[in-house]
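Narrative summary of target 7.
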Amino acid sequence: MTNGQTLRFSCKPGCINCCDQEGYVYLTEQDLKNAAKFVGMTAKAFEAKYVYRTKHLLRLRKPAKSQCHFLSSGGCSIHPVKPTQCRTFPFWPELVKSRAEWRRTGGYCPGIGHGELIQIGTALEIASEMETAYPSMYED
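Modeled conformation, tokenized:
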């Protein structure tokens, strides 16, 4: 997409479609600390129970029958401190920079194409948070 374009998006109350997609939830170190504090655990204990750490990334472990330990039918149980990846959806670089990917994501996200007009510059600014938070995922 190019400058001067706009996107429409409005998160729909009660919708958890984005959270229920196949994939992983990645964390920053700050995301881990925030979530741990929110659920009343130390960062070390939270990591031992919920996080898988690789050389370059942290991600939430997946429970056996869902995508996320913190996802319930009522939504995200750690919503006030949800990870950067979750907070910035759908304004991820790979979605904002590709009209086809934005439309494809709209197939499961009912908020895409509805609600406020969002300038592409604003969307790219939000998307840059992902690139900053998870640089190893966005290296060329």
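Residues 6-137 form one domain.
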